[in-house]
Amino acid sequence: MSQARDPLLPVYAIYGEDRPKVERTAARLVRRVQEEGGAEPERLTALETPAAQVADGCQALSFGGVRLVIVEDADAWRAGDVDPLVDYLADPNPQTVLALVSAGGVAQKLHQAVERTGRALRWGPDPKASVRERRKWLEGHFAAEVARAGGSVTATVARLVVERVCTEPTDAARTALNAMMLTSEAEKLAALSAGRPIDRDMVVSLVPSNPEARVYELADALVSGSARQTYDRLNDLAGGDDRSAPQVILMGLMRHYRALAAAQSLGPGASADAVADATGLRGFPAKKAAEQARALPAGAGERGLVRLARLELDLRVSSVADLGTSPDDGRRFAIERAARDLLAIARGGAPD
User: Fold this and answer.
1) Taking the chain, what is the end-to-end CA distance rounded to the nearest angstrom?
2) 243, 290, 296, 326: which could form a disulfide with 275 (CB 3.0–4.6 Å)?
3) CA separation, residue 41 to residues 27, 29, 120, 275, 337 (Å)
């Protein structure tokens, strides 16, 4: 006997730092609408589309079943922007389902309207969680993703994976990125474990300490123009027992600046979807590239790429790499000199 399902509601707010679960929830809603005769969803972003325009679009009549309108980045609307949607939700079109998708919560009065008319679904840690609480949540997230993929893992091993994979979850953006990386590792380890519990030896052999995550932090510091954060990240990457090879740092930065250059080439205000199409990035990384491209001076992404090409030559054939008492001394100097120039570019100046 088929089980009756709850009727579709006029509006859903789907948000939180657990981006994999946010995306799966939105995908389930798309499938549900299509199963009930609806067409492909209409996809918008609050970064480009005013709330008033969304409200007008939701009022349109549908001649092909239920319409689904998905608005990404819905937390970009400020409190003063959302009145038209709040008014719309007081008497919504029964032929339209509106999905507001975001990392953070929408404006309070819009959230209240959603709860009166539809449903708010938050996935992830409390938005006010401390770094320690976010790390604890990430450990539970990894264990849950392993179980979803058909595997099993102890809390101790889950903690080890978080330590090896994740950047410090100091804010919502980094927590969201960490959650995506942990989902990928969970699926890989569950598949390779072949029904056995994931143990420490498996993690050590299959999950390298993630230089990509640490290079991401370095790129974030460079784009922000913060010299203190930049050199802290460089010291972390180039020193200690868990060093990253200079070429790993270079390749990670080049990938990041290629995405920034591509995003800036699309023109001011390029959406995350447009950046995704141009770069192949998906989800949060595309959104981050779009945001940083808007924040940087025009042409900074391309100028950064040119400077990184010079760094590549320095690391390969320049006499700079031979400075100091060991090859690492010269290569580190070359990277630090490039970082100084990238900071100047982020601040609107010119490299030496």
Assistant:
1) 73
2) 290
3) 10, 10, 19, 20, 48
Do the domains 211-346 and 131-206 match in fold? no
* Range 26-46 burial, b when 16+ CB lie within 10 A, else e: beebbeebeeeebeebeebbb
Look up the CATH number of domain 211-346: 1.20.272.10
Residue type, 142: F
Alpha-carbon dihedral of residues 96, 102, 106, 111, nearest 10 degrees? 50
Q: Per-residue pLDDT for 147 more than 90?
A: yes
DSSP, residue by residue, 285-336: HHHHHHHHHHHSPTTHHHHHHHHHHHHHHHHHT-GGGG-SSSHHHHHHHHHH
Alpha-carbon gap, residue 149 to 137, rounded angstroms: 18
Q: Is 13 helix (H, G, I), strand (E, B) or coil?
A: strand
Predicted local confidence at residue 61, as pLDDT: 74
CATH of span 11-122: 3.40.50.300
Domain ranges of the chain: 11-122, 131-206, 211-346
CA 200 to each of CA 71, 143, 164, 221: distance values in angstroms, whole numbers, following the listed order? 41, 14, 12, 32
CATH topology of domain 131-206: Helicase, Ruva Protein; domain 3 (1.10.8)
pTM of the model: 0.61
